[in-house]
Design goal:
alpha/beta; 2 domains
Length: 421
Amino acid sequence: MTNQDNQKRKLVILVKHLHNLAFAYLAGFILYQIALNKIKNSTPQVSDEEEGEDGDDDNEEENAQTIQIARDTLLSNIVKSKKCRDIIRMDPRAFFILCRKLEVQGGLRATRQLNVQEQVARFLYILGHNTKHRVMSFFFHRGRSTISRDFHRVINALIELEATHLKQPDGSTTPSEITNSSRFFPYFKDCVGAIDGTHFRIKVNSKEAPKYRGRKEIPTMNVLAACTPNLKFTYVLVGWAGTASDSKIMKNALRRRDPLIIPEGKYYLVDAGFMLKSGLITPYRGERYHLKEFSRRNPPRTPRELFNLRHSSLRNMIEQAFGVLKKRFPIIASGTEPHYDKDTQKLIILACCILHNFLLDVDPDYEILAQVDRDLANRRRPTVEPSNDPQEDENDHRLGEIIRDRIANEMWNDYSLSLDF
């Protein structure tokens, strides 16, 4: 595919995304206006300032009961619509399961004038479309301070689900995605997942900006995450500045009070930006690595090349997980500066990871998974700067080399018989 074809494809995807976003806005507005007009035509009008709150939002005096029925009608139409997944990023069944979890486990509560479903639906719409609070204020006829307060209520309830939805593996079993593949098993039988860092835009003041301005020349946060082959995140560390290297963040992750735990005798796959050790297996340097570098006419020629090829293929799980996360929740993937401050953006990223895991269980979107796979296959791979940090434990580094060499030699011996890479 030429660069021109690739640019055209990206443009088509962008236009489709904008079309879906415009449809969601228009649908919400039309449904709201239809419901409001029907109710106004059949209900006596009583002047009353909405809920006696948010006086700074200049809300017109309207009948509170009329407005509430209109809101309920809008919410009902959203969750029952065939476009539900486009609007709130999940189907109705998943939505109601999530609402119940947030009530029971997260402590989210309805108020006298606001039920849990509306709070959650508004929150999901904001995540799924990167919508400003003033837009939500218009759609749901709520004051901006109400929208903001409820947004934080829901996000805090979601963070309460972290312990049950972001679980680190204990290493007691080998993931089925490995055992069911002759390319990966038994060679990677001790692999529990993959780890990498990814950058998210962040809003900081001019004084802090240089600290967060890394390779992308814009302020970003470098988030370290681990995932299993089923694309579920098992550890997420948010907060590090975009200038911090993956290797530096990894050191912190292994030492902090809430550490990344690598089960004894197990390891994660990582790229060359990390340090090789018994629990973190990197590819061989100076050898071909990515799938595009291999073909039937140009197959692996050495144990190291074969190891790198399969390492890259299996480690791709973390790229897929990041891809699905960002495609499902544009609020963290936008190229523009976020609407929220740094601390809130950290919570948003963590909340999106929790929702990502929840949805993989109850509402996996296979269309998004397919889109991400296509994007990864066509994208230009960024150059990974090898870690030059000094080894803190030479014995552990040597053990990592032994593990890697053993895997490479075992798979090469079998490959020589089948020539199936």
